[in-house]
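Handout, section B. The chain below has 808 residues.
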Amino acid sequence: MPFIAEPTQANYLLMKLSRFLRGGYAKKLAPVLGIFALTILYFSDTLSGKLLLVERDLTSFFYPFRSVWIETVRQGHFPFWNPYIKCGVPLFATIQPAVLYPLSLPYLFLPLDLAFNWTIIFHFFLAGAFTYLLMRELKASLQGSVAAAIAFVFGGYLLSVHNVLNTLLSVSWYPLVIFCGYRMFKDGKARWAVACGLSICCMFLGGGMEIVIFALATLLLLCLYPKIVPLAAGERFPTLWRRLGFLGLTFIIFLGLSMVQFLPFLELYMLSDRSGGMTLEEAIRWSLAPGDLLYFLMPDLYGSRINADQYWEFQNYLKTIYVGPVCLFLAAVYFFRQGRKCLPLVGAMGLVLILSLGRYTPLYTFLFKYFPLFSTLRYPVKFLFLFVFLLCLAAGLGLDIVRNRFSEKTRPNKSCQGFLVGAVLVLAGLLLLSRFLPEQVMGAALNWFGSFSEPSSLPRVLHNLNRLLCLSILSLMIIFFGLRGKLPRLGTPLLLILLTLDLFLGNRGFAQKLDAVSFHAETPVVETLKSDTQLFRFHVTEDRRKLNLFSRNYRSFHLRRKEALGYDLMMEHHLFDIDGYNVPLQTRYEKFLSLIRDRPLEPPVPALLNMLNVKYLLAEGSIELTGYVGIRDTLGKSTLYENRNFLPRAFLIRNYQVLESGQEFAETFHNPAFDPQKALLLEKEPQGFLALKEQPAATHLQPAVKVATYENNRMILEVSTPEATFLFMSEAYYPGWMAYVDGREEEILQANYVFRAIPVGPGSHRVELVMQPRSFKVGLVLSLLTIVILLAGWVFSTIKKRSSFMNR
């Protein structure tokens, strides 16, 4: 009997691989793997974490907030609170840090720098994979689907919003939401409503609230008019009322799953500057200027807008929106060949493009006045996302039209051929002119858009113009020979390769990077502050904040910002700033902080700084204030001062005064005689304190406060007092904080307009403050209930299907 070898694990794996390849799955998976490989190649130098992606808000908001909540979670606590800026701000309720976002899980296991980079990189791939999936659902070919995905991934929009990390995370899910919504409206099955609701929930947990609104608006439009989706004309859809029912189910599932995050976010929103709407000027800031439409064809056309006036005057939310001539040609082919069928889609794209113009169109002003939603949205240029995404889809579908035309044996008419030849000749003439007469072309460019462009940037403009002309000529030549039957199989791949190279190279270098050592470096000022073991805060004067720190070298710029104790950069060093950058802004604290910002360092500002536990002050030049001693010069323009009169983070106050309005608080704070130790300022009579005053005095005790434990969500203080008094803490008042005096719950009073105070009776006490937001608890229960209902529905559906199968 012949010997038969036992099947090994390797043989088993080879057998499974063989089946996988024979089943055609590898062919289907190859385009997605190709998109992943291109994404890895684009960000190849950041894969190890030795270089960090540091563009704009990544360093001043997203990385610092993530460092705080990840450290908190690793210590075994839930990240409700961030104490390092503005005397404490809600962390979890601020959805941008994406605490509960499912794809934030790697942060808990990987080094922070590595996880931070890979989060950005992976979401570029995710956006491409979901776009590819949507295109396949729209009956696009493999090549057309890949073209749309590459246009979206490597187009300027996604590369611009990677520094607005919450937008990147949410935008990546948008194609999947539309895919699930389309299947839901087409198939009329509840499982797609569940999938769509889950996708929107992930989008919301990523932190991009505006993108969630865009997604819901798109689903509503798709529900009312499904044929707006390309290639949907031949599909049959359920009735309108049935589609509306599925849309309602999707919204309920999304809202139910999101309640754990939505209720804390809503609580913060109602206390923020967004709840009452914004001014028109703030709402229309960063509108897309009509001249910026040239950015679609030429990357970085106007050069770098680096000074403060240009930064806010022009649109700087998107650094580039370059999609290139190949993408635009293919999209134009799709719209031209579809004719009237695509008019609704063109109308929708035109509307969002007009909305992105903001201040440059009266429509936005009208909508701001009469539609409340627009008064809560900032930066009209955000609407451009919808236009760019639909443009990328049209480009992929246009490539399929070209592909089908290339395979036909009939030649185009003479007028079409003549147009292509004429266009190539004109473009070639312009290319020769710019190559051999560059000075004349640069002079004309300066006269044309000299108000926008700096003379030093004109060589780059000329280079981009030559690039545009070359790409246009190559594209038209491929289309010309393809239509003549010369490139039946190579024409479409050549256009796809040209599109990929154009976007990959054209938008190369827009991702700013910095070595991790420099990013985490401790400057001399930081080292000075960290050497102090006391619990204190610091303050940077407004003139010091506004001092120009710009440098062409990003490493130098970052280190100078650190030396100037820049917004939020001190979080990773565990230093406390009375100011900072957070979203959204809490109205009350901003009003209080305005009493210090932009005001001279004279009474009562020093008293307010003392109350805020400010021990160190960084100011431009020299100052003359009693108790302030200069201890270090920095950058040659500013000085770090130590405040010898600062008050501790918590102290006792015997007397109080009740004020009835914000105006009275402002007048009291403006009074040069204001002394935070003399009387506590309250908004109502403290009934609990009046009862404590009836208790006998403990004359053997001396007033004392010791901070025994100070954590992000918890404080423990040891208090001794001979009589009833108030324990004042320069910690921001916020719903959700609970106080326990010797284990008994005690009311936290809103004191001195934005801070906390707790009445304590005579004796020695252990006072504990814990963050236990009710909004989180209620939201958690609702989210868990939604999950239980969905699981029960799935189990019931499975049992029903099995029962139906057994009865056949």
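Note. Residues 286 and 314 are 6 Å apart (CA to CA). Compare this with the example in section A.
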